[in-house]
Each structure stands twice: as structure tokens, then as C-alpha cells.
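Note to self: keep these together.
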Amino acid sequence: MKELDEGQSRLSRTSSVVERTAGALKSRKPPLTAEELREEAERAIAQEAVERTGDQALA
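Structure:
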């Protein structure tokens, strides 16, 4: 953040968005494992490809 103080500018650090919002959203479910995250990502990518191409044979 830049502040003006009697004709001089001063820079100061601001906290990151990650720091300010950490823990703000809670879930009742346990976090997904790395493998589960990969599988979900693969499914989402495949679904998006099907929707983009209109190829319902893959669905």
C-alpha cells in the first residue's frame, strides 16, 4: 500500500488474500485426498470436453 506523508511516499506491506481469508469457509466433509482431487479434475475435464464437442457417446 502506498501512503503519502508530507510529500514523501511510504510503502507498507499488506496481507495477502490467502492470509485474510484462510479458514473463512468451513466444510462438514473431510478434505479430499490428492488422488480424489485428481479423479475429480479428470471427470470435470472430460465433461467439459463432451459439452464443448457435443459428443454424447463419451457421456
